[in-house]
Structure to design on (200 residues):
DNA sequence: GTAATAGTGAAGTGATTGCTTGACTATTCC
DNA sequence: GGAATAGTCAAGCAATCACTTCACTATTAC
């Protein structure tokens, strides 16, 4: 669940659409595929990436797999981006202090 | 400077390394290329993507181009991820309330 | 002026990737 | 039992992508 894996996973528009859909609630594979206009096979491939990065979790009950968001995965990416931004902004702050 | 463009840009390990380097301070193109072990041409191509997404800004003085981080671009991606996560977490909270 | 430095542009290449089809394996419903 | 449903696996394909080399244009240094 490294930030690198998560950002790799979020670097694709279809996977972002899946994440957006899952943020509104758990979902089956075919329910994810339908609004995207792609096959369930394609969704399965994206899910493998999303699960591998820790952004999504799923479990199969009977013949349907239910997918849900894994907030900790998203949080890892948020921290990476936030850290870069804050590092830079603190530099800006120090520069501001120097100018005062 | 849409979140989609920023996440597309951050979906590549080399571009993330460039962002990490720039978070420690402004940098020339060749100074970015050296630790990465790639050509300045390759860095220039990545910079075009990063600038197009609003994560990086640069200006050319004389013959050297100085690149710096643009915090607003990173913030846009943070907001997108945070929004997905919070939407889902608030659902979890409501579920918790129901169970009480 | 000449030489070295910093970067840009065009073209090519090999690898990756997002997606499809077709065949197959459970599971549920009648 | 048989038919429909939900998903998985293996191959294959077209497009994108990250990177290179080579040629070229400023700018700076001697």
């Amino acid at each position: 669940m490294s930030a690198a894996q998560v950002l790799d996973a979020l670097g694709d528009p279809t996977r972002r659409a899946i994440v957006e859909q899952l943020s509104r609630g758990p979902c089956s594979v075919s329910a994810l595929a339908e609004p995207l206009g792609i096959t369930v096979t394609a969704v399965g491939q994206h899910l493998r990436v999303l699960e591998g990065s820790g952004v999504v979790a799923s479990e199969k009950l009977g013949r349907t797999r239910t997918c849900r968001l894994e907030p900790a995965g998203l949080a890892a990416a948020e921290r990476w981006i936030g850290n870069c931004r804050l590092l830079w902004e603190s530099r800006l702050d120090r520069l501001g202090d120097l100018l005062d």
